[in-house]
Amino acid sequence: MASRTLTRAAVAGLAAVALLGSAACGSGFDDNSGETAQSNGPANLQILIGSSGDAETKAVQDAAAKWASGSGNTATVTPAQDLTQQLGQALAGGTPPDVFYVDASRFADYASVGALEPYGDKISNNGDFYESLRTTFTYNGKLYCAPKDFSTLALQINTDLWAKAGLTDADIPTTWDQLTATAQKIKAKGQVPLALGDTRDRIGAFLVQNGGWLMSEDGTRPTADTPENVAALQYVKDLLTKGLAQYPKQLDAGWSGEAFGKGKAVMTIEGNWIKGALQNDFPNVKYKVVPLPAGPKGQGTLSFTQCWGIAAKSKYKEQAIKFVEAMTSGEQQMAFAKAFGVMPSRESVREQYTSAFPNDKPFIDGAAFAQGPVNAPKMDSVLRDLEAGLQGLATGDPKTILANFDKNATAALGG
């Protein structure tokens, strides 16, 4: 998990620079005069995915083969070795796949240079996608692409360690004050209360719970340095300095799920991907999942999602849209959920999902109050600087960290 994140971060800048640079040099991503001629005949769709493993690859290949055989087209699904790098190079080189996974954290980079076909309004019943996911993939007022699936953060509790600390269900924290009180009880018993990832993708949830976030909803201006965000970051700093929360590196772990699996912390904050990781690496850990504690302004979590991107330069756009339509049907999304553990992006299959996976209800319930990633282009270096500040939060100044983000983001956005 951690190593994948690092790899993505390392190559993201290279791919984005290649993509943005080529657009600036006149490759014509957003030059409508160079509209790609469309083919109405049978399509040979090339589909590039960032697969989580063999189960996902097989599920998508099977679904694509079923669609192709029923529609008279062909569809070749290729799992990328490194999606960000390969996609960036293909887009920059003018030879993109027709359909591809687009991570929410990269979406604005691709949309801002005209690399994506804004087809979202052509997908039937697109209002059925969770609103937070539609917002994530909207740029300049247009829904660009159909959300593929999503994850949210919740609180995991090691039930054996919980009992060992003398706690009951009455101690499950539903507010920040209760989180502090419960963590103090755990610490008093000589255990580490909370393993917390040292990134915006975990700590950011606290900003949302206090009514704040890093960017405006339309992605045009930074909003980090506010009293709400400063108070949220100060709360996290207090957890760290009082020993009520620790970063994974303090627990000799690569990520919070590893620290939790090793029994080094009683609680952690992770997404539903932790289920597979614990089954694989720590199958004997007994745990339960509950919603994240609400902050002063209410409940909040973060969402992580991808969409089915269609290349603006594809010559099979209509066929590609029909392919995405098939991949995002409720029935197909449930098949994917059962095959490799993702949560469907359509609200209409929510009850089906929670019936099949009752323990994951806190994750899917989070869609109602989830915040997507920073949705602005050219933010890689800005976000890396923020991460460095958060890693030093225990000895840092929350207001300074947030003010630096605003300053750097404003510069990156050209203003």
UniProtKB/TrEMBL annotation:
CDD domains: PBP2_UgpB. Residues 1-23 form the signal peptide. It holds the Pfam family SBP_bac_1. The keyword Signal applies. GO terms for molecular function: maltose binding. GO terms for cellular component: ATP-binding cassette (ABC) transporter complex, substrate-binding subunit-containing. Gene3D superfamilies: Periplasmic binding protein-like II. PROSITE patterns: PROKAR_LIPOPROTEIN. Keywords: Signal, Transport. One of its GO terms (biological process) is maltose transport. Belongs to the bacterial solute-binding protein 1 family. This is ABC transporter substrate-binding protein.
